[in-house]
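Priority: medium. Attachment 1 of 2:
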């Protein structure tokens, strides 16, 4: 593609995908992108010996970069954003390997942006995000009084958007910085959204643009309760990073902070009541709390 035609502009779009040990999902995602972007940057954080699919290495519209080790999602995204910036991209679309882009998603997002009179304040555009296999809407979100809720049918302004599907102005990174690599994984998106909102920028939500996304492993407990499960190590990052974000933005965004503290407490009871390997998960939960208070953030 020579450029992306919208209602009033011609812009260059780069997609950044961080892959971790799953080339099958990556192939499906890349196929769904088709001609919607000018280039796709694949950042490989994989920890296993592997053979990269040949079509990824040979496609002139795909830039492949293997990290020397798994430095986390934040570092992978930042490397992809940097490579996109060097290519002259105007916008960067961030994607998880297990997401699927709907037809005309990016056109819908840019066309809605072109209709807006407040373009200078819009720095991130997000789609409607649905959970794969269930059809239930997951994101984007907005802050209510003491709660964080999914957007209503008439909303077009989000307060938070997950990383996958977020299309961000390249110029924004120079102003507010890149993704926080010390988070490694989890709450990178919350931190970035709250940072841009702290600087007076907006998140535009486009309902016509649709992304499907896998959100953890769906499980059923011994007592029949459905829940989303994550590896015990993820509980560590979720706990530590949740507390870090509350500390950073709690005063400015009190409703967000109150909801996160509630979720922090509910996580403990969720482990006790429904999750397996309870002792191991609790160990990671309390390690996250301990490392938050000691300010010891590991990048490995």
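Attachment 2 of 2:
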């Amino acid at each position: 593609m020579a450029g992306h035609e919208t209602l009033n502009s011609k812009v260059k779009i780069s997609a950044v995908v961080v892959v971790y040990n799953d080339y099958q999902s990556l192939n499906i995602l890349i196929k769904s992108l088709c001609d919607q972007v000018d280039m796709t940057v694949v950042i490989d954080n994989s920890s296993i010996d592997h053979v990269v699919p040949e079509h990824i290495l040979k496609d002139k519209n795909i830039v492949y970069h293997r990290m020397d080790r798994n430095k986390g999602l934040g570092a992978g995204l930042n490397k992809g954003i940097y490579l996109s910036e060097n290519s002259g991209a105007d916008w960067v679309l961030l994607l998880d390997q297990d997401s699927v882009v709907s037809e005309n998603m990016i056109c819908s997002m840019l066309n809605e942006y072109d209709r807006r009179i407040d373009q200078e304040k819009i720095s991130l555009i997000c789609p409607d995000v649905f959970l794969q296999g269930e059809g239930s809407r997951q994101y984007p979100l907005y802050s209510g009084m003491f709660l964080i809720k999914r957007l209503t049918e008439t909303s077009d302004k989000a307060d938070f958007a997950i990383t996958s599907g977020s299309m961000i102005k390249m110029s924004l990174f120079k102003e507010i910085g890149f993704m926080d690599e010390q988070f490694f994984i989890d709450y990178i998106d919350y931190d970035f959204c709250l940072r841009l909102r702290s600087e007076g920028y907006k998140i535009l939500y486009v309902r016509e643009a649709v992304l499907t996304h896998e959100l953890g492993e769906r499980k059923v407990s011994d007592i029949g309760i459905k829940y989303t499960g994550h590896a015990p190590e993820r509980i560590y990052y979720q706990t530590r990073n949740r507390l870090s974000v509350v500390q950073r933005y709690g005063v400015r965004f009190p409703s967000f902070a109150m909801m996160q503290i509630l979720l922090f407490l509910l996580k403990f009871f969720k482990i006790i009541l429904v999750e397996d390997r309870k002792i191991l998960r609790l160990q990671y939960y309390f390690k996250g709390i301990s490392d938050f208070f000691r300010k010891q953030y590991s990048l490995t």
